[in-house]
Specification:
binds flavin-adenine dinucleotide, 12 helices, 4-stranded mixed β-sheet, 371 residues
Length: 371
Amino acid sequence: MNFDLTEERQMLQDTLRRYLSDKYTTKVRNQILDSETGLSSAIWAELAELGVIGALFTEDEGGFGGKGFDISVVFEELGRAGVVEPFLETGILGGRLIAALGDDGQTAMIDEIIGGGLQLAFAHGEPTSRYDLSRVETRVSDGKIIGRKAVVVNAEAADQLIVSARESGAADDVDGMSLFLVARDAPGLTMRGYPLLAGGRAAEVTLEDTPGTRLGPEGGAFAAIEAAVAAAHVALSAEAFGAMNTATDLTRDYLMTRKQFGRPIGTFQALQHRMADLLIELEQARSAVINAAGHLEAEPRIRDLEMAAARNLIGRVGRLVAEDSIQMHGGIAMTQEYELAHIAKRIVMTDHRFGDTDYHLERFIDLSAAA
Ligand SMILES: Cc1cc2nc3c(=O)[nH]c(=O)nc-3n(C[C@H](O)[C@H](O)[C@H](O)COP(=O)(O)OP(=O)(O)OC[C@H]3O[C@@H](n4cnc5c(N)ncnc54)[C@H](O)[C@@H]3O)c2cc1C
């Protein structure tokens, strides 16, 4: 099998890597982290111009990619540079839901998304839902939305929120769930925002008789939600893998620079073995990302099984890489001014979105048993 990137994807990777290593320095990112919005609209606009968002959509949708490998190329580079801007929220989750379910008027928004002019947030998780995608208590009554959504990433910056709400069925039914486009300043919508540990912002969102425009058929949104989250699994796996590459590069450099007992600490066998273990695990992670990206277009059960396998492996390797890199760096890894501090947080954070390592192990077992 040929695992080389196509010429277009290779160009995208090169352009993105060059841009981010020039522009997205630790200092620039720390300024973004300290800002009120938690993202840089200038960098967002420049990345949109480079085609980063367009690569996440198919040609039919107005983009020039949209496959699993397009997503993995983009997110590996975003992860390598520790980018905090909400590409997952707007480009993957929000964008895919609109592309899958929207009518002609709604899908016209995709041009704006690709151009960098529209921000989205996916308001789905609730205080009691944990990682269960089908658990939604928010409901629709007389055409208005009533409920609470938890940790809605990018909610404050979003022009539109995509809110899941139940039109029929019990709280954990797969059927009966609809999606609604809700403007951030819609009546009855309130939010309490806060910064996230590894960058970006989220909010607790309350909806009290809030109007929205339905996206897709009444009560039939669940399959599209699962498909969008599968794409998020590819993105998160690739992002964590990119960040792991940076963590191991920094660690290798440090081991060859820091001297103790008159020579670089990387010449001591105990640390060499530890570094070798990380590099072998990193190759496993690379394979997991390729496997996930290659199965995004598979039928849903196979797709979800492979996503669970990838997320479990990436979660385990990510934790090892983050913790060992910090240990081998000693105290300087704790310093916010040093790149690794942020990169390690990003790696650990990705393991808490749409299911952690343990959750994906259980999910893999359940889906395998159902075969
Ligand atoms: C200069 C430096 C060198 C280091 N070198 C190494 C090294 O060589 N090897 C290595 O493995 N690690 C090293 N470390 C990491 C360090 O040893 C600890 O891992 C790190 O400080 C976390 O310790 P802790 O979990 O006890 O939390 P702490 O740092 O003690 O505290 C964590 C947070 O909780 C707060 N807190 C603590 N106690 C209370 C309290 N009673 N009430 C309210 N808030 C509280 C603190 O203010 C802080 O915000 C180094 C750290 C530094 C800064």
